[in-house]
Amino acid sequence: MKKVAGLFVSAALLIVLFVPLFSIPILGSFNAIKLQEQGNSLLIEIVICSFLAFIIAITGNYRGFIFIGIIVAGDVTYNLYRIGTGIAGNELTKSLLQYEWGWGYWALVAIAFFIIGFSKDEKTERIKALKICLFCAEDIKIDASICRYCGKEQPIIEKVIPESELIIEDVPEDEEEARILTFEGKIALENYREKKKLLSNE
Fold this sequence. Notes:
Blueprint: H1 2-15, E1 22-24, E2 28-30, H2 32-37, H3 42-59, H4 64-87, H5 91-96, E3 98-99, H6 102-118, H7 122-128, E4 130-132, E5 139-141, H8 175-183, H9 186-201
Antiparallel strand pairs: 1-2, 1-3, 4-5
């Protein structure tokens, strides 16, 4: 989904080349292509940003869209000031200059890059929703009661605590606990102890 959105917004940035940015009576409207003919480098800036955005979308490094968003937003602000002050250098031109809707469209493209860059990665969220089976060490859904791989029933744990926040006695009580702690970590050891406790109460 983020890849499709990234490709779409990257293509939308190229459309900035054709949207009107300002107009002057008799001279008509100006876009990035027409400004390039007047010696302005706006066309090159937009093409480079769009190319980089396409690369980011294809490679899947979506955080890079934040960087593109910063560049595009800075480009909008800088060119709005530069072009405005350049063309409005005399009182006659200043009174005739009219800004067009292209600036708003350009700013929306910058905002879209920020939204994609800061949005959560679906793949990462799916990984966070998994746990490891105590018997076969395969990844299964966090609320699964039976492992889909080995068919073993999973011990009931009221709350899954992140390993960084887990506080348990690290000294293993037997050889099996030592093996689990060494190779599977604290969460697996806590699960093992919970299972032993449940079995002992039966």
